[in-house]
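Researcher: I'm comparing several assemblies side by side, and this is the next one on my list. It has 741 residues spread over two chains. Same procedure as the others: predict the full complex and return the structure.
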Amino acid sequence: MSTSQKTLEALANRDYKWGFVSDIEADTLPPGLNEDVIRAISAKKAEPEFMLQWRLKAYRHWSKLERAAGEPKWANVTYPPIDYQKIVYYSAPKRQGEGPASLDEVDPKLLETFEKLGVPLAERQLLAGVAVDAVFDSVSVATTFKDKLAELGIIFGSFSEAVQNHPELVQKYLGSVVPYTDNFYAALNSAVFTDGSFCYIPKGVRCPMELSTYFRINAAKSGQFERTLIVAEEGSYVSYLEGCTAPMRDENQLHAAVVELIAHERAQIKYSTVQNWYAGDAEGRGGIFNFVTKRGKCAGRAARISWTQVETGSAITWKYPSVILQGDDSVGEFYSVALTANRQQADTGTKMLHIGKNTRSTIISKGISAGRGNNTYRGLVRISPRAANARNYTQCDSLLLGDRCGAHTFPYIEVGNASSVAEHEASTSKISDEQLFYCKQRGLSTENAVSMIVNGFCKEVFKNLPMEFAVEATKLLGVSLEGSIG
Amino acid sequence: MLSVRNLSVGVDGKTILRSLNLEVRAGEVHAVMGPNGSGKSTLAQALAGHPAYTVTGGEVTYLGRDLLAMPPEERARAGLFLAFQYPIEIAGVSNAAFLKAAINEMRAARGQEELDAMEMLELLEKKLSLVDMDRSFLSRPVNEGFSGGEKKRNEILQMAVLEPKLAILDETDSGLDIDALKIVAQGVNHLRRTDNAIILVTHYQRILNYVEPDRVHVLFDGRIVKSAGKELALELERKGYDWIKEQPAPVQPAA
């Protein structure tokens, strides 16, 4: 192995500075999953009957799948079987009475936790123009700027609140894009999900600030099953961002989320993710299994949905943020950076399902593999027979750091009519010794050179992130590759 | 400033430089000329510390330090600059970001504070005019989609911005039209001061019409076979390199 290769290997080692545990008293259900657990969760959340029934249907469907074949096995990842009876499905910080009415009443330890994560919840300290919903284990603990948004008719807050305050909206849209029958993890999530964010933008309203949810897993042995639902009415606009971290633990923890987006006529939803769940250590011990179903529906004409994701964490990532392009002239976009270092595995990509006429989709995927990381792009572009003049452009680039990592691309392209065009470009490259030498000759350290080259590789994706988060993502990649040289 | 003694360098097990000697003092411009395959680029790359070039013998002292013991980035931070014959492309990284990173590394090495965005822009604007380029040049990715001439001018821009103590230009003049050549020459002359030195590695005499060298060396078969004043370049231009090959290898005069 050459010296520069060794250095690259060393760079793949990483420090995880979000790995602390908060000592917070929790209200926790015992591990295990059965109908009683589902009923208990629903009762704890004082849900209306339709929710309980929906959960039970999902649970029965999931049980059937589990008995038949178990979890899906087609992804290009390997891991030991998950014992679903050992997972804790509900863990919430204990609270007094009805729960906090305002930030002043939130447990200071929780505020401290989010402060430490760089997500201050006190509004005066917030990044200007970003509203945050903070989810800690199974529940949402605080939402900022809620009143200000309400003046515009925007509903933004925890899913649990939405179930209480806007059951008609929840009932109308829940499962309308990702039905509980969609897949194994979507069924599991539908049965046991405990909280998440809900967002509703009324007709013609342009949401004046970035909406954001910060997910934090804290409790041991617990899974996180959140559900996010965003509805953008005709002609509205919203930009939404989620971030996530978890403590460092030797056991794997399951995160199985569902995100549903609905964009009506001429509405636009931008959804950005900076995923930094704990990735496990250099030997592959511990880390989050991130098995997530994300899908948006361009329900009306000229609707637009874009997914931007920066995936640097998790032991295993399995997610395919997709867009159903139902409305004519609608647009779907997917911009992704996925980094796998150490023994991380990612099988990620998107599905663009063209149904309406003149629909367009763009897919830009950047995979970075380091250490013994294994990175797979899997994408489906399906253009239905009636989607005349549909267009797709796909670009998949892989960057390899070192010689023990892997990059794979599995594109599926199905074009059902003669007037549509699908383009696919792919490349695989390495950071060359020449590039490194050039940077070093200009005084850059190996670390800075690699970080600069990697960030350059990701630029097309980063430019789609809201500014504050693009800076964050750039730093995160630097930190993720930062190593223990010498 | 630079003292190269009995330097031998190989690539892939093949010996290229054989006991080469070279002395460069502050304030001097040296031209290293020679036919293709004589080892000109090997000398440039070896001095900059390219990992593919293995030093098999000899020593190099640079500003009183053992150059060969320094990793490439240390050499750069100590003011040794190499203008590449084939500048490398870095996709997605703007020229401005690259220059900023380089400048701040150099400043950190000198114990200076980082430049802020405004100071940086001011500095870059000044240097851009030197290589006759406009501001849009800064936002383009490093060398990506650049013409040959633009790449070479970009090297000169970097040199002008970083203000090295010892600049080694590896055939920067090759393949340039006369206007680009003048711009490169202007960049070199701008750098020329009593406290720094320049080594021009070149195949042709042409650039020496614009940059007057103090010494001209002829490299042949991995050795400097002739050293003289600027008139040697004109003689080479007239007679070609063949007559040099007949000359016995002289003993390099000690500095």
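Model: For your comparison table: The first strand of chain A starts at residue 26 and ends at 28.
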